[in-house]
Write a structure and sequence with these properties.
The protein has three helices and five strands, in the order αβββαβαβ. The protein has helices at 16-32, 77-85, 104-117, and strands spanning 60-62, 68-70, 73-74, 94-98, 122-124. It has a domain at 60-124: Nucleotidyltransferase, domain 5, CATH 3.30.420. By secondary structure, the chain is of the alpha/beta class. β2 (68-70) and β3 (73-74) form a beta hairpin. It is rod-shaped.
């Protein structure tokens, strides 16, 4: 007499390892993400012809009404904070995020004062 052996079922594929990999990637990207704080006041930068985004390490903000902000400092306290990082050995440029409606004379006065503090290079951030 001939007895057939039972057919073997293929093991089900489990998606648990794929879910684990997905969560590990999510955690990795959250850990290495750079979170940029929002601007201290409403800013609409001028338009640009280039498509290259600016790097905003610690930008100086200038509003349309002439308000200044740098980190936690506001108003005249900004210049005290900037004086501590400015100098001839500082090779990194300062990024200025100015509102598109800011007066040119105000920007020129600000640039002159920044040059007096020791900033050799100031970059203006614009919208692409």
């Amino acid at each position: 007499m001939r007895i057939d052996s039972p057919t073997r079922r293929l093991p089900r594929e489990t998606v648990v390892p794929m879910i684990n990999v997905g969560f590990l990637l999510l955690i990795f990207f959250l850990m290495v993400a750079v979170i940029v704080p929002p601007p201290p006041f409403e800013i609409t930068p001028p338009q640009s012809e280039t498509k290259q985004p600016a790097e905003l390490n610690s930008p100086l903000y200038l509003s349309a009404s002439g308000e200044l902000a740098w980190g936690e400092a506001r108003g005249e306290a900004v210049f005290d904070g900037l004086a501590s990082v400015a100098g001839p050995e500082s090779q990194q440029p300062l990024t200025l995020v100015a509102d598109g409606q800011a007066k040119g004379a105000e920007v020129a006065r600000l640039l002159s004062r920044l040059a007096g503090l020791g900033f050799a290079r100031v970059e203006l951030a614009v919208m692409p």
